Amino acid sequence: MADRSTAPHPRNAWDTDYHAPALTESVIELLGNSTLVLDGTLGGGGHAAALLDAGVQRVLGLDRDPDALVSASARLSGAVAAGRFAAYQGNYAHLDRVADLTDLRFNGILLDLGISSHQIDDASRGFSFREGAPLDMRMGADAPRTAAALLNEADLLELTRVFREYADEPRAPRLAREIVRRRATHAFATSDDLVGAIRASFGPRTGPPEFARLFQAVRIGVNNEMEDLARALPGLRDRLAPRGILAVIAYHSGEDRQVKHAVRDWSEDCICPPRHPMCTCGGGRALGTVLTRRAITAEAGEIAVNPRARSAKLRAWQKAE
Hints:
Helix content: 25-40%
Shape: globular
Strand order of the largest sheet: 3-2-1-4-5-7-6
Largest sheet: 7 strands, mixed
Low-confidence stretches: 1-10
Number of domains: 2
Number of strands: 7
CATH architecture of the largest domain: 3-Layer(aba) Sandwich
Structural class: alpha/beta
Strand content: 5-15%
Distance between the termini: 40 Å
């Protein structure tokens, strides 16, 4: 029998040109028995389609990007007609702002963080470092500023923080100073401007791996992704029905760390001494249970057909009765 970790992995049945969802089989295992699932990062609807095919009675999709809503709704038109799927524009960090979702409790909630293949491939969106791409990077119109605005307006401390915290870049102050120096005479407008600043800071041999990491940091800053995740996690936890499951796929170490620490904290009982008259540790009864002792990652076969899955880490948590 072939080793699953190295056996060829067929193209996922739920892949489309818009996006290839990662770790779909694991998502089905975790959420496939649910009655009502919220897909908080709908994208092209790949995970939603997989869950509907697995027998989930109803999936509601949410995305900041109107292109995602159009693509997923067209793809799942049969489920829309049957009342099994509906899509809404909004940010999973502000769920209560979507009127139709305000009072719902979900058996499962899925977040697939980061950006879709479609967003990367559409040069006009400015998510890539391909030559001449505009410095936009907004996931939706709710983003407060473009990448160009961040690079042209943020002060030295904020720029340093973006590259240090979101790209783990130890030379962040050097790059921040170079950006401030350059924008004094020429405003940042295209990917070429940021690539030039990176090469001037770190040397002419700097290449795609560094560009990808640093452009990602700018994107995270533009869309407030870290702050949104921190705000969203407790709110999504509270939107779960008893025994409901929260599953999060992260591609950035900082995002994965946030999820890991959150679900660990929610799963701890009070650790005060037995004779202590009242709880002072902030614990109390555990709110639920971690379902993934270690993050689930993609096998070699999946990575071969979907390289983006290489950095995917899936963690899941189940709410108590």
